[in-house]
Specification:
By secondary structure, the protein is α/β, with parallel strands linked by helices. The chain folds into two domains: 223 residues, Rossmann fold (3-Layer(aba) Sandwich); 211 residues, Alpha-Beta Barrel (TIM Barrel). The protein has 20 helices and 15 strands. The protein is globular, with a radius of gyration of 23 Å. The protein starts with a strand and ends with a helix.
Length: 529
């Protein structure tokens, strides 16, 4: 069975696998790590695989069609996300029109949460693999190869003559060491220099050490939709072995990024990883997402393993907000974490969000002051995005606090995240504007600039990284008005609903390709070409 894994075209540099899928002012571009992991597992089961990541390569729909024609897959597995959903459904329809024999399966949080809506919107989609789909795709490929029904495969939506059906839920895989490594798939099919993370030494590579998160934050999508709240992780030995493989076989890589929701939550695991990494002489530094609950001894162990910088979701400092979002943290806990990280020489990227139930202009100003007090190495300020399938989405939708349910409008015309929360006394544009102001005020304070200058003198490589990150942000600020003018020169800025309806599909292969080229032109206009 020939299985092609596709991260489909949308906007150039659209990071679909990011927790907040968008085009980022920092130029961040994530690897398609979930697709690549499923590809590795499918190949392990004896199937032939091919992986295409369109957005970082700026691959058009026409170019994608050529790649599909070369590989001639029997099954296409395509990732979707909330803001790209309308386009993803249309891409599936175009592919099916051009290649009617190919079975198409969609994956991702959005189609897992809105599977019925997806099957209705995209008649070309044969299957949806729900939640964690590594094993699901491998089993689906085996069933299709043997001309067997997929109704016995857990975690699948499949079409029938009268509509579609859902099979029983698939339980999350418990023994993650049995999964194949994802990094060899990256080496074969992807170009590391196409990917970028402003907190990294680049080129970097992204891998997963564990799945699930014990925290129950009401806005976080992966634990609620796909992975659950039990933290399951690979053994320290297996992780260290893959890190060593990357170090020896991908010499251009300068850092490894762990994209777990809550890396190192298991203290025994954190200590063991430090021991094994030192013993195996792993030299590559790494990044990880952690929580402020992480104790000093665990931080020390992760530092020994190579932890250079971490991202922490401080989110807010309002105890009422913590209660409403099911997050058990305090300002004192955050301060203690920052003190420990500084003493150990671990850089911290702080994440702060606006738009919680009860948010006011005063609470937003207080959160910015809280960020000043913590003074992490860098910070991001974003509106809360209530993705379908989360408790946050239900909360805001049921109270009519969503400014729009047209998911294309969850991005600006050129792909940046856009606030969709229409809260009492706070409009979406006001929250967005405050996020930009908070970013500028935090990073251009004299105290902060002096700190970064001192850091650059002591650690020139960190200074260079900061300069590059600053350049991307200034480029973003200067480009906003220019981009808008260029978009208007190409065609009117799309209005709500422009991507919401499925156009009537043309008949025949050549007509479908012409239709795909129209999509390319539309995407080029979005990018301001």
């Amino acid at each position: 069975m020939r299985v092609q894994f596709i991260n489909p075209p949308f906007l150039p540099r659209f990071s679909r696998s990011h927790r907040m899928p968008a085009v980022f002012k920092s130029e961040t571009m994530f690897y398609p790590y979930w697709l690549a992991q499923a590809a590795a597992e499918t190949e392990e089961k004896g199937h032939e695989i091919h992986l295409i990541d369109c957005p970082p390569a700026r691959m058009t729909m026409s170019a994608l069609d050529q790649e599909i024609g070369k590989f001639r897959p029997d099954l296409i597995v395509m990732e979707s996300s909330t803001p790209s959903w309308y386009s993803d459904c249309e891409v599936a329809n175009v592919i099916k029109r051009a290649h009617p024999r190919i079975k198409i399966c969609l994956v991702g949080n959005h189609v897992t949460a809105l599977h019925d809506e997806t099957m209705e919107r995209a008649p070309a989609v044969d299957f949806i693999a729900l939640g964690e789909y590594d094993d699901t795709i491998a089993e689906m490929a085996a069933a299709l190869e043997g001309n067997r029904d997929v109704s016995d495969i857990a975690g699948v939506i499949f079409r029938t003559g009268k509509g579609w059906q859902r099979t029983p839920e698939r339980l999350p895989r418990q023994h993650l060491d049995q999964l194949s490594w994802v990094s060899p798939v990256y080496k074969r099919f992807l170009v590391p220099r196409n990917y970028y993370f402003n907190l990294s030494h680049n080129p970097m590579v992204q891998i997963i050490a564990g799945r699930g998160c014990k925290s129950k934050c009401f806005f976080c999508a992966y634990p609620q939709i796909s992975h659950g709240h039990a933290y399951r992780h690979r053994t320290a030995e297996d992780i260290a072995n893959e890190m060593l493989w990357i170090q020896e076989n991908m010499p251009e890589i300068k850092q490894i990024n762990f994209e777990d929701d809550n890396f190192g939550d298991d203290r025994v695991f954190a200590r063991r990883l430090g021991e094994v990494a030192k013993y195996r002489r792993i030299k590559l530094p790494f990044f990880a997402n952690v929580r402020a609950h992480l104790d000093r001894s665990s931080l020390e162990s992760l530092k020994d393993a190579g932890l250079r910088i971490c991202s922490v979701g401080f989110d807010s400092m309002n105890t009422e907000f913590f209660y409403s979002m099911n997050k058990n943290e305090t300002e004192e806990l955050a301060q203690t974490f920052m003190e420990n990280a500084r003493e150990l020489g671990i850089l911290v990227h702080g994440c702060f969000m606006f738009g919680f139930p009860g948010e006011t202009r005063k609470s937003m100003r207080e959160l910015l002051k809280f960020a000043y007090r913590l003074n992490p190495d860098s910070a991001q300020f974003y509106p809360l995005m209530p993705y379908p399938g989360t408790s946050a989405y239900t909360y805001y939708r049921d109270r009519n606090y969503l400014a729009t349910e047209n998911f294309r409008d969850w991005l600006t015309e050129h792909g940046m995240p856009r606030c969709v929360l229409n809260l009492p006394g706070l409009k979406p544009d006001e929250i967005d504007a405050f996020c930009d102001r908070a970013f500028i005020r935090f990073h251009f304070r004299p105290r902060y600039l002096f700190m970064k200058l001192f850091q650059a003198l002591l650690q020139p490589v960190e200074g260079i990284r900061s300069i590059i990150a600053g350049y991307h942000f200034v480029h973003y600020l200067r480009g906003r008005s220019r981009m808008k003018k260029r978009l208007l020169a190409v065609r009117p800025v799309p209005k709500s609903g422009d991507w919401g309806a499925i156009p009537t599909l043309p008949k025949g292969r050549m007509q479908a390709i012409e239709h795909a080229r129209l999509l390319d032109l539309q995407a080029d206009a979005e990018a301001g070409k």
